Amino acid sequence: MATQPNILVILTDQQTQAALSAHGNPFLHTPHMDSLVHSGLTFRNAYCASPVCGPSRGSLLTGRLPHRTGVEVNGPAVQPGITTMGQHFRQAGYRPYYAGKLHLGQNPRQGVEEVGGRLGFEFLCDEYPEGTPRQLGTDTDPLWTDHAVEFLQNQAPTDSGSDVPFLLVASLHNPHDICYWVMEWHHIVDVPSDSELPPLPTNFLPVPDEPEFVSFCRHRTEYGPEMSWTHKWDENDWRRYLYVYNRLTERVDEQIGRLLRALEESGLADDTLVVLTSDHGEGVAAHKWVTKLILWEEVVNVPFVIRLPGAVPENQVDRTHLVSGVDLLPTLCDYAGIAAPEGIDGQSVRPVIENPALAGRSHIVTELQPFLDDETKKGRMIRTARYKYIAFSHGQRPELLFDLENDPGETENLAYQVAYREVLSEHRELLSEEIGKTADPFVLPVG
């Protein structure tokens, strides 16, 4: 392993933790992502900082929670003055590059005007090449991968050993195309009439007496309107949707295979830290939910796989430690031997990789702002070792508490059960402490 490894971050879009055949899902086949799982370490308790593209990406690239980046909904760019991954690694002597989806402010264009700017990355290609319809990953991912593969093929190590290490973020789009399929763009994936459709999940039905806030979200018609297209679906429609989501995940796996082959053929694999993760997950029919913008496990629990030959154990699964999207940047810094930016919310996972007996994080926070017309309508999630607490700012029955050890499908809300008052109070207090520590504008519901 090189003193300072090259770094390849592979981002998928909207991939739930379970959407990997290596994680035991028999309804899809992801051999290339599986190869990373088998040659590296997987954190099964990894969570996005926010279950929507822009805010999550802002956190991945800064190590800060969404309310601290200024990106709580899709559209804005990270606030000026906040150090981004590209900028920080450039200042530390790395060569930072980016190919694919960014989804933070205006689309970056190829050219020297971006080099060393606020983002710090050199963009290998346009975010959305001209002529790609509806910004579909089916169209963009092969093109973005072309540029990333060409870059990797040109990075073969030299005999002098004096090469400056690179950081490449390859940010792919699928299985995000499921959003458009739900809204009746059925040509994206053909579902043959004789296809064997996946079964519905065991937690298919909504939580009894679900919070009114969740009902508000089910009826959005702007900013993530996909749920409104499902109200008349029957069970077969839901199973077809699952079939399509699996096929879209397989499409992005093909592109990841091309990246990994290029890395191997260039002789870079042994000296390159590879991280695979996603900006957020997908509803996959749990609680009759599609796509994102809610805090169910399937939507917030994402893949987080890390590989570095000689430094990270192979074929290991960590089912204990909690990881957040804000931990990506400090983890990369740790393995690169550079200090993380000051004032971030994330922490490196390297210590718990090297010593699994360490406690690691006691809890993580995920933020939700699912409406554009009222920025006070928010949700917050606290995940601890055993429990998950969710609080919403509006509506009746605004709290959820789940025992994930005994109820991983989140089917029984314990928040209003007398036996769990103490557990509820402890998690309220944790969230209150986080709100105070980070100047979070979220207002806890009155208990």
The overall average pLDDT, rounded, is 93
Cα separation of the termini:
53 Å
Biggest beta-sheet profile: 8 strands, mixed
Strand content: 15-25%
Q: Give the beta-strand count.
A: 12
- Helix and strand string, N-terminal first? EHEHHHEEHEHHHEHEEHHEEEEH
Unreliable stretches covering 5 or more consecutive residues = 110-116
User: What overall geometry do the principal axes of the alpha carbons give?
Assistant: globular
Helix count? 12
Total discrete domains: 2
Task: Report on this structure.
This protein has 447 residues and is α/β, with parallel strands linked by helices. It has two domains: 6-361, 3-Layer(aba) Sandwich (Alkaline Phosphatase, subunit A); 367-438, Arylsulfatase, C-terminal domain (2-Layer Sandwich), CATH 3.30.1120. Helix content is 28%, strand content 15%. It is built from twelve helices and twelve strands. It has helices at residues 31-39, 53-62, 66-69, 85-91, 137-153, 178-182, 212-218, 235-265, 297-300, 328-336, 350-354, 421-438, and strands at 6-12, 41-47, 95-100, 122-123, 166-171, 272-278, 304-307, 316-324, 364-368, 379-383, 387-392, 399-403. The strands form two sheets. It has an eight-stranded mixed β-sheet, with helices on both faces. Strand 11 and strand 12 form a beta hairpin. Helix 5 packs parallel to helix 8. The longest helix is centred in the middle third of the chain and has 31 residues, at 235-265. The radius of gyration is 21 Å and the shape is globular. Mean pLDDT is 93; it is low at 110-116. Keywords: Hydrolase, Transferase. This is Sulfatase-like hydrolase/transferase. One of its GO terms (molecular function) is glucuronate-2-sulfatase activity. Belongs to the sulfatase family. Residues 5-338 form the Sulfatase N-terminal domain.
